[in-house]
Specification:
With about 240 residues, the chain is mainly α. The protein folds into 3 domains: about 45 residues; about 70 residues, no CATH class; about 100 residues, no CATH class. It is about 60% helix and about 5% strand. It contains 9 helices and 4 strands. A hairpin with a 2-residue loop joins β2 and β3. α8 packs antiparallel against α9. The relative contact order is 0.06.
Length: about 240
């Protein structure tokens, strides 16, 4: 019986060999490009999962999609979007060769994108909004912010609005770790707490380095000067 062709002469492996690993220069470029792509993708995923604040998107999705369009006739926008999606999908199906498997994948993705947002919204806790209130200005460097003198809110019929006084128990770490919506005065407080924590961490690091014997004379002099100039801001809460 005829033998199958070598693995490296057909299929995906052959394409990879021909386009990415044909010469030594191609191999070097492939590894460099792969490393850059991995670093970018890993950084983007890390930011998206652990650092990004998506509340501004999820909580304002309707505003971002329809803007100030009247809510009582927003169904027109939804109907127009559905009709456009149907026409585009029908056109793609008519002018391209779409296999049954690809069609199933497309339908599955559409269903997931349609059903996932309401499911996630029902399973997640709404984001908190932090507002600073009082009669004393918040000064963070050159930034001066005045807290809200009077608190108020606007809600729809049937909505439940909960207002709580946050007690940080004298810990700046809790202020620096706040996540959610915040007004300008609260952001100034967060910046103050974060700056104090960063200065304390740097002070501890310099002290640890100076206590060792691995520094050169120039390094020790530079760290000593930095330590003398380091200013620890006062505690935000106390």
């Amino acid at each position: 019986p005829p033998k199958p062709p070598p693995v490296l002469t057909t299929g995906v492996l052959a394409w990879l060999r021909e386009n990415l690993f044909k010469t030594t220069f191609d191999i070097i470029l492939t590894f460099i490009g792969g490393g850059i792509a991995f670093a970018v993708i890993a950084g983007l995923l890390t930011w998206a999962i652990s650092a990004a604040n998506w509340f501004v998107i999820t909580q304002n999705l309707e505003q971002l999609m329809t803007g100030t369009f009247p809510r009582d006739i927003v169904w027109r926008v939804n109907l127009a979007a559905l009709l456009c999606a149907f026409v585009i999908g029908l056109t793609i199906y008519a002018y391209t060769r779409v296999t049954r498997g690809l069609l199933i994948v497309i339908v599955g993705l559409v269903l997931i994108l349609t059903l996932l947002p309401p499911i996630l919204f029902s399973l997640t806790t709404p984001a908190a909004a932090f507002v600073a209130a009082g009669d004393e200005a918040v000064i963070s460097g050159s930034q001066i912010e005045t807290p809200q003198p009077i608190l108020g809110f606007i809600g729809r019929a049937g909505e439940v609005v909960t207002i709580e006084r946050v007690d940080f128990e004298g810990r700046d770490e809790q202020i620096g770790a706040l996540a959610g919506f915040a007004d300008r005065a609260t952001n100034a407080l967060i910046n103050l707490a974060s700056a104090r924590l960063a200065a304390q961490a740097r002070q501890a690091e310099i002290t640890r380095l100076l206590a060792g014997d691995l520094l050169t004379a120039n390094q020790r002099a530079a760290l000593t000067t930095e330590l003398d100039r380091l200013m620890i801001p006062p505690a935000v809460v106390g």
